[in-house]
Amino acid sequence: MTFQGMDIVSIRDLSREQIEQVLERSERMIPYARGEKSSKALDGKILATLFFEPSTRTRMSFESAMMRLGGRITDLGVPSMSSISKGESLADTIRMVEVYSDIIVIRHPREGAARLAARFSSKPVINAGDGAGQHPTQTLLDLFTIRRIKKDFSKLNVVMVGDLKYGRTVHSLAEALSSFGADLTFVAPTALQMPKETVKQVEKAGGKPKLTNHLEETIADADVLYVTRIQKERFPDLAEYQKVAGMYRVDKKLLREAKSDLIVMHPLPRVDEIDPEVDDTPHAKYFEQAFNGVPVRMALLNLVLGGEL
User: Fold this and answer.
1) From the candidate CATH numbers 1.25.40.10, 3.40.50.1370, 3.30.428.10, 3.40.50.2300, the one assigned to the domain spanning 136-290
2) pTM for the complete prediction?
3) What topology does CATH give the domain 11-134+293-304?
4) E strands along the chain, which residues?
5) Count of CB atoms situated within 10 Å of the CB of 181
6) How many CA atoms lie within 13 A of 204 on its CB side?
7) Whether 87 contacts 110, CB under 8 Å
8) What is the pLDDT of residue 271?
9) 118 CB-near residues (< 8 Å, 6+ apart)
10) Which residue has the higher pLDDT, 288 or 111?
11) Per-residue pLDDT for 274 more than 90?
12) Which backbone phi and psi does 68 adopt, to 5 degrees?
């Protein structure tokens, strides 16, 4: 199965076998991601980063991944300081950027922007998040984190809680986990429950997701608790945000009811949905999860650009 030159816009672009290939390659990348080994696999290659939305982990892990493989980065910078501020279309920006690079990573507030970029680019495009749509590389690092700890996805009870409507990370992850045989529970207020399209995709993959708005009722049977932030910036109406802000909070009191080997994950940044007191418990895996973005994105860049370790 070749990845070379492939666009990665949605997790649906990858077969189960391809996902497993990325996860296996990611395992090999860990000592390189930690700086214990060095590589020139992508020497001479240039990664272009186009971030139209704020980012810390995704941007820095992509940059770190490229540099750990001996490649280089060219960055669009703040969009307002580029020709976009003069009215240049996204299509024309992509046409220009591909001239200066070998691969493009884009994050954009508009759903579908990454697919549009892939349409106009002859170079491979990786979606780093498009609006409330997809975030495939986050899904891959989440899967990698779960597999390293739990070994097998089959029959794991994964509870996703928080903003499941606008939280793009859970859309991709729910679809992927259902294809691997995990059991899913979606915990959210009605207004932020998992979109019907995603629920249908989960069911199409053979899953039977449970939907509820009561976190306390699900914690005892959970193997993985995947927490998301209520995303204020995605609400068209501030009053609607204020109705649900702070509705769920994971703390030590809640975790007393959990299995001893429950893992708590979060794509970060967090606000107040996970109490900092949880950080020192064996349940907390979100900082390990953030590190895993480096080996996973190294693996993907290596595969798409045809590099050899």
Assistant:
1) 3.40.50.1370
2) 0.91
3) Rossmann fold (3.40.50)
4) 46-51, 72-75, 103-108, 125-130, 157-161, 183-187, 210-212, 224-227, 263-265
5) 14
6) 10
7) no
8) 87
9) 7, 9, 125
10) 288
11) yes
12) -65, -25
Residues 6+ apart with CB under 8 A from 113: 52, 90, 106, 130, 131
Which regions of the chain carry the CATH code 3.40.50.1370? 11-134+293-304, 136-290
φ, ψ (nearest 5 deg) of residue 81: -100, 5
User: From edge to edge, which strands make up the β-sheet containing 263-265?
Assistant: 210-212, 183-187, 157-161, 224-227, 263-265
Cα dihedral 126, 200, 150, 287, rounded to 10, equals: 50
Place of tokens 């060219």: 74
Q: Give the up-direction half-sphere exposure of residue 43: CA atoms within 13 A in the CB hemisphere.
A: 6
What are the C-alpha distances in Å from 90 to residues 74, 115, 137? 17, 11, 22
